[in-house]
Amino acid sequence: MLVSNRLSLILLIFCGVFGAKTDEIKTISVKTGDCVVLHTGVREINREKQILWLFGAEDPDTLIAEIYKLSISIYDTYEGLKDRLQMDQQTGSLTVRNITTSHSGLYMAQIMNSMTTFKRFSVMVYGPVSLPVIESSSQVSECLISDGGFSSAVMCSAENGPEVSLSWFKGKERLNQTSSPDLSVTLSLPLEIKDRNNDVFHCVAANPVSNKTTQFSFQEHCPLNTG
Questions:
Q1: Which residues of 16-52 are buried (b: 16+ CB within 10 A; e: fewer)?
Q2: CA pair distance 78, 56, nearest whole angstrom
Q3: How far apart are CA 155 and CA 192, in angstroms?
Q4: Cα–Cα distance between 188 and 178 in angstroms, integer?
Q5: pLDDT value for 189
Q6: Bridge-partner residues for 152, per DSSP?
Q7: How far apart are CA 145 and CA 77, in angstroms?
Q8: Fold match between domain 26-126 and domain 133-217
Q9: Which SUPFAM superfamilies match (predicted)?
Q10: What's the rounded mean pLDDT across residues 24-36?
């Protein structure tokens, strides 16, 4: 009942029934397993100050932690989150340890003293990208020489995921790129080469927090004695 009453007060304040100051949402991107610290901006908490932390995948509607009269409470209100939370006794800042993709969402601190202030954080948690695979079997790649001309084609593939892109690079120059909102599909990107030289290419899978690269050597794929 106590948590329910406090949540009702939170919703009233957040909807503008009482005066409140709300900061812009700060976006944070992290990898799974990282430790994330969400700062309240408070230097030191006195006994009269109360800080509530709320969380939700889209809206911060679940009370997960609070400090009041210098006493900290962590609530088991969101699956798998309670044991990962730590609240700073002096500032009320919230630490989320060993964070997972299921803990992506909106975190909000409600800081109550003489006035109410809100701090909001949009936390996006990404898994590591997979290592790109370059297929060079006869079914998907070929080297052709005819009438003095030359062409070669290879295919690079990687597992898809949130905000994952797949790109071909020659040095620092991006040659092409692909991505897809359909996370059930595998990303695939062809590379066509029309000049025989010693260039080395890189296929890169990347998301906002990680990237992995597979190198493609032109000479290994199409040796000089190809005919």
A1: eeeebeeeeeeeeebebebebebebebeebeeebbbb
A2: 9
A3: 9
A4: 8
A5: 96
A6: 143, 193
A7: 66
A8: yes
A9: Immunoglobulin
A10: 95
Query: Which candidate, 205, 201, 191, places its Cα nearest to that of 158?
Result: 205
pTM here is 0.77
Tell me: pLDDT of 143 over 80: no
User: What is the third-level CATH fold of 133-217?
Assistant: Immunoglobulin-like (2.60.40)
Location of structure tokens 């060079």? 136
d(CA 102, CA 123): 11
Q: Measured on CA atoms in the order 67, 73, 78, 82, is the torsion positive or negative?
A: positive
Identify whether the C-beta of residue 30 lies closer than 8 Å to the C-beta of residue 36.
yes
- For the record, the structure tokens of 71 come out as 């006493």
Give the angle subtended at the CA of 61 by the CAs of 59 and 64, to the nearest 5°. Answer: 120
Instruction: Give dist(CA 110, CA 113) in Å, integer.
Output: 10
Encode pLDDT of 31-71 as tens digits: 999 999 999 999 999 888 899 999 998 889 999 999 999 99
Q: What average pLDDT does the segment 110-132 reach?
A: 94
Considering the four listed CATH numbers 1.20.1250.20, 2.60.40.10, 3.40.50.11030, 2.30.42.10, the one that applies to the domain covering 26-126 is 2.60.40.10
Q: How confident is the model at residue 151 (pLDDT cuts 50, 70, 90)?
A: low
